[in-house]
Specification:
By secondary structure, the protein is of the alpha/beta class. The protein has 9 helices and 7 strands. The chain binds nicotinamide-adenine-dinucleotide.
């Protein structure tokens, strides 16, 4: 799909990190952007910076909790009311909890699954009927992770949620191709964002905000030294233009994918 003036992108988790970089990259093509985030101030900051830069169409901020279906419905209402159509939808908001399954409470599971998987499902249920009804070419990008392609240790709910996002994206890809709606799934390794501090957004009903656990310090350092989010965003826009399914960004995640495939091949050979 072509990207540029007259088109509109909606990005969840657009107030920080990869989502912010996606918003800026869409705006740089001249597109309108809906910057959506549970942190309303962060979303407003990004939309304001885009407007100040003056590169694109219009940018608006919408406070949205992707785990809340009514909130995502309101996001779709605002996006279509402001711009009349949506061409690119990035279901990007996500959180992480650094725990193995044996160490997790029900609330630990519910928080991560409701944002990472529930958020993508809500994006699909609330936007897809309108994308179909508008009858024009469109594209959905779901942010998974390299943890959607294999299972790194110490993050049980993150792996479960991201593998589900990969599977859903693969299904949507086939499902929506006849409707001219492309689907990509973003599977990056470490990207220099605030993801390790995801506990800042944990709602009170599911345990409340939490600090980065001490055992996650090596991960924090790895993420801080990770790929710039702008580089990831550029790859995503290329994938939309090319209608590519998988967006992999880190050569160092190949080993995990290959090991998983080798296990599966061995299972067939038994
Ligand atoms: N940074 C990495 O290394 C990395 C690697 C693989 C995948 N990812 C994925 O990239 C996506 C973006 O994360 P990031 O790395 O930019 O982190 P980030 O913390 O910098 O940005 C995530 C944004 O999502 C928002 N958010 C959190 N909960 C929300 C909710 N319920 N509703 C709406 N918005 C919510 C946050 O306020 C924040 O602005 C996530 O899905 C994450 O899992 C990140």
């Amino acid at each position: 799909m072509e990207l540029g003036p007259g088109r509109t992108a909606v990005v969840t988790g657009g107030g920080s990190g990869i989502g912010e970089a996606l918003c800026r990259a869409f705006a740089a093509t001249g597109m309108n952007v809906v910057v959506s985030d549970v942190d309303g101030d962060a979303a407003s900051g990004v939309a304001g910076a885009i407007a100040d830069a003056g590169a694109g169409g219009r940018a608006i901020a919408v406070r949205t909790d992707v785990a809340d279906r009514a909130s995502v419905k309101a996001l779709a209402d605002e996006a279509f009311a402001a711009f009349g159509s949506v061409d690119a939808l990035c279901n990007n908001a996500g959180v992480v909890s650094f725990r193995n399954a044996a160490d997790m409470s029900d609330a630990d599971w519910d928080w991560v699954m409701s944002v990472n998987l529930g958020g993508v499902v809500n994006g699909v249920t609330q936007f897809l009927p309108r994308l179909i009804a508008q009858g024009t070419e469109a594209h959905i990008v779901n942010t998974a992770s390299s943890a959607g392609l294999f299972a790194p240790p110490g993050m049980a709910s993150y792996v479960a949620s991201k593998q589900a996002v990969v599977g859903l994206s693969e299904h949507l890809r086939e499902d929506l191709a006849p409707l001219d709606i492309g689907v990509s799934v973003l599977c990056p390794g470490g990207v220099a964002t605030r993801i390790v501090e995801a506990g800042r957004n944990r709602p009170d009903a599911l345990g409340g905000p939490e600090d980065v656990p001490a055992h996650a310090e090596p991960i924090r350092q790895g993420i801080a030294a990770g790929m710039p989010p702008e580089d990831v965003a550029a790859r995503v826009l290329d994938a939309i233009r090319a209608n590519a399914l998988y967006v992999v960004t880190h050569e160092d995640t190949r080993e995990g994918v290959e090991a998983r495939l080798a296990e599966m091949r061995a299972a067939f050979a038994r």
